[in-house]
């Protein structure tokens, strides 16, 4: 730990993380791609049930496990002690390979210490503030910052990833900003958590990105979309998850997280999505 702290202070604390904004989270073990287009294990992004997590994290994790989920992705710890959270994960039989985190110089050391306790491998930047993405040069500067921080995280034993929304697919001067983020970041330092709803909503084509930038997407968010743009539970919309999962190896997908940003009934939403995915797997 002392070696890690020293590296963080000399590499990140002196400037690398300053290339990124102090990203505040909204309210966010298997290391091989599944074979044959299936998916295993199924995880859930805890932002979906954030109210339950805030009020009773131990109970929420137990409920997630009883539904059948095996992995979770965090979206904030709600002032709970990481050691205690780890005990709740272990008691529920869950792992937490990823988390959406705040990456700021003044808190990075404690962020990485918490991530180590909780068993995170991937630390995910969930958003680029609007003021930092007005031009293509803005995106290039962001990509440079991602590379710097990605190097620092790799040396500390973690992998940086970026979670897309829809705005990255809105062309600027004839170019798609998402392409810049992929082209100008080092694949070893910066990977992508592809949100399958938001890429579709923004007019992007997951299959095109899988083919052009293979192996860049170890994490995906699974939420469905009606043709009118409404977000719905997995299986209730028009996204062809079966076809997407058939490209898991090409894409490099290792972790699949169910999510719904604003469900009417959070637990029922993740139950329905899990049941659909389980049925899809049985039917293969």
Q: What's the alpha carbon Rg, rounded to whole Å?
A: 18 Å
Structural class: alpha/beta
Provide the helix percentage.
40-55%
CATH H-level superfamily title: Divalent-metal-dependent TIM barrel enzymes
CATH topology: TIM Barrel
Architecture in CATH? Alpha-Beta Barrel
Number of domains: 1
Tally of individual helices: 12
Largest sheet: number of strands, sense, barrel closure: 8 strands, parallel, barrel
The ordered string of helix (H) and strand (E) elements is: HEHHEHEHEHEHEHHEEEHHEH
Q: How far apart are the termini?
A: 45 Å
What's the β-strand tally?
10
Strand order of the largest sheet: 1-2-3-4-5-6-7-10
Overall pLDDT, averaged?
89
The first-level CATH class is given as Alpha Beta
Strand content: 5-15%
Q: Poorly predicted ranges (pLDDT <50, ≥5 residues)?
A: 1-37
Please explain how this structure is put together:
- The chain has 284 residues and is α/β, with parallel strands linked by helices.
- The protein has a single domain, classed as TIM Barrel (Alpha-Beta Barrel), CATH 3.20.20.150.
- Helices cover 41% and strands 14% of the residues.
- The strands form two sheets. The chain has an eight-stranded parallel beta barrel. It has a two-stranded antiparallel ribbon with strand order 8-9.
- It is globular and about 50 Å long.
Short description:
The chain is of the alpha/beta class.
Q: Topology, please?
A:
Elements: H1 2-12, E1 42-45, H2 50-55, H3 57-67, E2 71-74, H4 82-92, E3 95-100, H5 108-118, E4 122-125, H6 136-155, E5 159-163, H7 177-183, E6 190-195, H8 196-201, H9 206-212, E7 219-222, E8 224-225, E9 231-232, H10 241-245, H11 248-251, E10 255-258, H12 266-282
Parallel strand pairs: 1-2, 1-10, 2-3, 3-4, 4-5, 5-6, 6-7, 7-10
Antiparallel strand pairs: 8-9
